[in-house]
């Protein structure tokens, strides 16, 4: 990891993204709430393809974090960001010291009710 100029440059860019675009998040790891910075990507609508060719229905939020900040985390871990509760569905592999968590809204085992659009 970071053994060549490209990897070092990417790690520097990823760190800058977390510092400037990240926000405080709380993740439950081994029964403890851990504070860290993460960048939340939360799509709000389906993606429609040109000419009605199809529809992509993936509005799962994703959280970009430092891999070292989430050591020991397991799927279904609770994540709190800005008053909203999520839980970890999947953890992408480490990519040069950073990774994405795919999240679900609400708590595991509880149906999430989408707020009405107003």
What are the salient characteristics of this protein?
8 strands, 39% strand, six-stranded antiparallel β-barrel, Thrombin, subunit H, mainly beta, 118 residues, globular, two-stranded antiparallel ribbon
Tell me what the structure shows.
The longest helix is centred in the first third of the chain and has 17 residues. The strands form two sheets. The chain has a six-stranded antiparallel β-barrel. It is built from one helix and eight strands, in the order αββββββββ. Helix content is about 15%, strand content about 40%. The protein has about 120 residues and is mainly beta. The model has no long low-confidence stretch (mean pLDDT about 85). It has a single domain, classed as Thrombin, subunit H.
Question: Can you lay out the helices and strands and say which pair or pack?
Answer:
Blueprint: H1 5-21, E1 23-29, E2 32-41, E3 47-48, E4 55-56, E5 62-66, E6 78-81, E7 84-91, E8 98-105
Antiparallel strand pairs: 1-2, 1-6, 2-5, 3-4, 5-8, 6-7, 7-8
Residue ranges: pLDDT <50 for 5 or more in a row? none
Strand content: 35-45%
Share of helix, binned: 10-25%
Choose one word for the global shape: globular
CATH topology: Thrombin, subunit H
Structural class designation: mainly beta
Q: Summarize the biggest pleated sheet.
A: 6 strands, antiparallel, barrel
Q: Provide a count of the helices.
A: 1
Overall number of strands: 8
Instruction: Return the domain count.
Output: 1
Order of helices and strands: HEEEEEEEE
N- to C-terminal distance: 47 Å
What would CATH call the architecture?
A: Beta Barrel
